[in-house]
């Protein structure tokens, strides 16, 4: 059931219990977790934090903790399947779910006793009524248990159909802190990062982002106003959050301007930097700005103050001439003391790089702890380490996009575009991780739409496959909706993947909380694709 009063129905219930906190490996989830941890510290709530990467992990974590705990808080996992059927808990276990994945399973919505959904609701919910779902099943004569197995039957179709707008989990938990009057600047910063993560990884529309930014801006003003009276507002370890209308250039304040322009999808796709013509256009753009190449190619921190002063305006003016009308975007920045300045997107890229690091043989659990650490302002070294990793990742994505476009690796399969990264591709290990693959997929589709002359192809979604585990001979497959400004970001591939795997008996593993990502045996790739083409045609 939906929780309407988050303080009374959630926090007042868990504050006197031992809580198992199950958190998925996503940045928004990490931020929500940090806020909740801070609240638990305030009220001395005992909790155990368990990172979970997929459904198998969640099942194992639940089995290990179900004896000691009655109260489970699930962040960014658990809402889009029938949870009680999946976990088979005792009747006195309660699950509080704060999850951004859609669609929400309607059985969770109508379970009044054990499943409590902390999902912000809009007026037009479109939840099918209880009678519609469960009465129909009985009328079918009991032959449909409500599982998805009988693909075409009406009730099971209705069972899953509850799509609704995304709210960052971090924003939901921040609002709880605000209601409890325990919100701090750190918590507000984490909420901002959670929202920015959803924009960077393309989970929300630009319209929704702007609306949520306005909400957060009010909180920022409130906190800044509150601190004006304090003497230490300029102390060495103070923290200042500011609203900024900044550039869509990834990590440019921690890189050189030139490298940032080359490795940001927005500029790279607009200039078509994978072509000689694009490189020439970039040189013209830099000349138009009147910035010396020596300045543009050195670290941003080392640029002359005279150049830096009105840099954003200069870039914006030249960008308009080159058709990049929206190179600036509303965001937030933070100052820690005097010399550390980060934009919210910098932290998102750094945290993602740490969370999916392939550099050492660290377990997902180790990476989770490192990523969680880099969100603390006491751990700026770790954050800078994450930023260095993120630069390598962005360069790898850009090089892979260029090679895929130049070697025509993106094929039109009829109802969708398809790209397969071959085993020998550089950095292919990086793309066995869901967030890195999502970014690559998003950049690739943007680049393809810019470079193709085929109008029909511009309206197609993209499916990408990359080697996952060479020894087990598995690939990771991911689908994203068509590239368009008006898109509502709803992704229907999860259901299509399920059906295609079922109809061809392909050996797949649907372990990710995001249903549009699956793992598949290499040998089954061809028949799985053929089934998808038939299904979506």
From TrEMBL:
Bias type Low complexity, positions: 145-155
Subcellular location: Nucleus
Keywords: Cell cycle, DNA replication, Nucleus
GO cellular component: DNA replication preinitiation complex
Region (Disordered): 136-158
Name of this chain's protein: CDC45 cell division cycle 45 homolog (S. cerevisiae)
Classification of source organism: Eukaryota, Metazoa, Chordata, Craniata, Vertebrata
PANTHER family to which the protein is assigned, alphabetical: CDC45-RELATED PROTEIN, CELL DIVISION CONTROL PROTEIN 45 HOMOLOG
Key word Cell cycle present: yes
One Pfam family this sequence matches: CDC45
Gene, per the UniProt record: cdc45
One of the GO biological process terms: double-strand break repair via break-induced replication
Any one GO molecular-function label of the UniProt entry: single-stranded DNA binding
């Amino acid at each position: 059931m939906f929780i309407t009063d988050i303080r009374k129905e959630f926090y007042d219930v868990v504050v006197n219990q031992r809580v198992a906190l199950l958190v998925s490996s996503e940045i928004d989830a990490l931020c929500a977790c940090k806020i909740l941890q801070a609240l638990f510290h305030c009220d001395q709530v005992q909790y155990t934090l368990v990172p979970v990467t997929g459904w198998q992990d969640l099942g194992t974590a639940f089995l290990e903790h179900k004896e000691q705990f009655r109260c489970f808080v699930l962040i960014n996992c658990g809402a889009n399947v029938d949870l009680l059927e999946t976990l088979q808990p005792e009747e006195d276990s309660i699950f509080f779910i704060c999850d951004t994945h859609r669609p929400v399973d309607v059985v969770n919505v109508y379970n009044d006793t054990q499943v409590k959904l902390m999902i912000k609701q809009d007026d037009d919910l479109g939840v099918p009524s209880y009678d519609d779902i469960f009465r129909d099943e009985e009328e079918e004569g009991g032959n449909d248990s409500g599982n998805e197995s009988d693909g075409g039957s009406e009730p099971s179709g209705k069972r899953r159909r509850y799509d609704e707008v995304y709210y960052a989990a971090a924003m939901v938990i921040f609002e709880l802190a605000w209601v409890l009057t325990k919100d701090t600047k750190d918590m507000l910063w984490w909420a901002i990062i959670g929202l920015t993560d959803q924009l960077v990884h393309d989970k929300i529309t630009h319209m929704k982002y702007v609306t949520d930014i306005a909400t957060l801006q009010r909180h920022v003003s409130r906190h800044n106003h509150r601190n004006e009276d304090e003497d230490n507002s300029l102390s060495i370890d103070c923290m200042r959050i500011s609203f900024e209308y900044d550039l869509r250039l990834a990590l440019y304040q921690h890189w050189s301007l030139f490298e940032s322009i080359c490795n940001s999808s927005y500029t790279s796709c607009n200039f078509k930097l994978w072509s000689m013509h694009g490189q020439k256009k970039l040189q013209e753009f830099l000349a138009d700005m009147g910035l010396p190449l020596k300045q543009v190619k050195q670290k941003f921190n080392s640029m002359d103050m005279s150049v830096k002063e009105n840099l954003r305006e200069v870039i914006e003016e030249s960008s308009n001439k080159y058709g990049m009308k929206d190179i600036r975007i509303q965001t937030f920045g933070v100052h820690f003391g005097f010399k550390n300045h980060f934009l919210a997107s910098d932290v998102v890229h750094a945290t993602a790089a740490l969370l999916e690091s392939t550099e050492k043989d660290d377990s997902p659990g180790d990476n989770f702890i490192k990523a969680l650490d880099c969100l603390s302002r006491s751990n700026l070294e770790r954050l800078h380490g994450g930023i260095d990793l993120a630069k390598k990742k962005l360069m790898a994505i850009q090089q892979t996009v260029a090679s895929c476009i130049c070697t025509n690796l993106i094929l039109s399969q009829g109802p969708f575009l398809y790209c397969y990264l071959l085993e020998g591709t550089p950095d292919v290990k990086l793309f066995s991780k869901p967030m890195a693959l999502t970014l690559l997929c998003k950049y690739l589709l943007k680049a393809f739409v810019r470079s193709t002359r085929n109008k029909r192809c511009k309206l197609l979604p993209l499916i990408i496959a990359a080697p996952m585990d060479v020894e087990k001979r598995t690939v990771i497959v991911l689908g994203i909706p068509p590239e368009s400004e008006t898109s509502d970001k709803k992704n229907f591939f999860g259901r299509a993947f399920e059906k295609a795997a079922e109809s061809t008996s392909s050996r797949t593993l649907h372990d990710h909380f995001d249903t549009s990502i699956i793992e598949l045996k290499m040998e089954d790739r061809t028949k799985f694709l053929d089934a998808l083409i038939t299904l979506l045609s």
